[in-house]
Amino acid sequence: MTKLTRMLPWVGAAFALATLASTIQRKGLLRGALDAVLDATPVVGGVKMVAEKMRGRDFIADRRQISKLRAAGVSELSAAGGPP
Fold first, then answer.
1. What is the 3-state secondary structure (H, E, C) of 44-77?
2. pLDDT tens digit string along 38-56?
3. CA distances to 10, 65, 84 from 58, in Å
4. CB burial readout 47-83, b (16+ within 10 A) else e
5. What is the torsion angle, in degrees rounded to the nearest 10, for the CA atoms of residue 56, residue 60, residue 47 and residue 54?
6. CA–CA distance, 32 with 38 (Å, rounded to integer)
7. Cα distances (angstroms) measured from residue 75 to each of 25, 44, 59, 81, 83
8. How far is 66 from 78, CA to CA, in rounded Å?
9. Which of 4, 13, 22, 47 could pair with 40 as two cysteines, CB 3.0-4.6 Å apart?
10. Which residues lie below 8 Å from residue 69, measured CB to CB, with a gap of 6+?
11. Helix axes 20-27, 29-40, angle to 10 degrees
């Protein structure tokens, strides 16, 4: 069991690296890289994923969502989950 718990952070980091290209394509270079780095960080990535599941959406919005919100007149900061 201890080998498994020591291996889990590496599995999460490998998964984040494997999905890096699609994340950058969906979110843009800076937002995608930030999302991948947060996901690859052992404790932070797990907490972030659980919080996103509970919240029902990503903390770092996709480009398409931001462009739709800009067209509706909502600021990018509030689209990313920050204050309005």
1. HHHHHHHHHHHHCCCCCCCHHHHHHHHHHCCCHH
2. 888 888 888 998 999 999 9
3. 22, 11, 17
4. ebeeeeeeeeebebbbeeebeebeeeeeeeeebeeee
5. -10
6. 10
7. 21, 26, 15, 10, 10
8. 10
9. 13
10. 61, 76, 78, 79
11. 140
**Residue type, position 65, single letter:** Q
| Side-chain half-sphere CA neighbours of 18 within 13 A | 6
